[in-house]
Structure formats: C-alpha cells, structure tokens
Amino acid sequence: MKVLVRLFARLRGEFGTGEKALELRDGATLAELLDLVLRGRRPEGLIIAVNNKLVGDRPVEDLRLGDGDVVDIMPPASGG
C-alpha cells in the first residue's frame, strides 16, 4: 500500500524533504512507519496526524494504516 508522509518545521530540514511517498506492507502500523521514517528514534512530543486527525494518546502500535493515508509528523511547538 502507498502512504504519503509529510514532515514539518525542523524535521523537514533534517530529512531534506517535506514529503515522502512510502510503499508499506498491507496492515502496517503507524509505529512501523515512524520507525522507518525516523530511523528508529522517536523524539518526545511529536505531533502526529493521520488524514488530518490528531493521533493524540492513542498507541501508535495499534493504529493500522490504509492505502492512500496521509501521515503528518510535526515537532513540538516552541517559542513564545
């Protein structure tokens, strides 16, 4: 299945791109996608949305992705 990942703010700079189209196995979880995109490191405070709905406190290991899903990954907001 195909999933579009959009990276924002400093993540965009770290990865050198704002979007990545990924091919994942059917039934892949959000946790698998995050491990792939973030290379096994998950900084605390990430804001994640799937199809424009915030994931919040739901366990990413339990959230299954579907073909055509759009996953937004944003670092925590800072500043004042």
Description:
The chain is α+β, with helices and mostly antiparallel strands and 80 residues long. It has a single domain (2-74), classed as Beta-grasp domain (Ubiquitin-like (UB roll), Roll), CATH 3.10.20. 18% of the residues lie in helices and 28% in strands. It has two helices and five strands, in the order βαβαβββ. It has helices at 10-15, 30-37; strands at 2-7, 19-23, 47-50, 53-54, 70-74. A five-stranded mixed sheet has the order 2-1-5-3-4. Strand 3 (47-50) and strand 4 form a beta hairpin. The longest helix is centred in the middle third of the chain and has 8 residues, at 30-37. The relative contact order is 0.31.
Give the N-to-C terminal Cα separation.
40 Å
Main β sheet profile: 5 strands, mixed
* CATH architecture assignment: Roll
Strand content: 25-35%
> Helix content range of the residues, please?
10-25%
Order of helices and strands: EHEHEEE
Which stretches are poorly predicted, pLDDT < 50 over at least 5 residues? none
Question: Mind telling me the CATH superfamily name?
Answer: Beta-grasp domain
**CATH level 1 class label:** Alpha Beta
Structural class: alpha+beta
Radius of gyration: 12 Å
Shape estimate: globular
| Sequence of strands across the biggest β-sheet | 2-1-5-3-4
The total count of strands amounts to 5
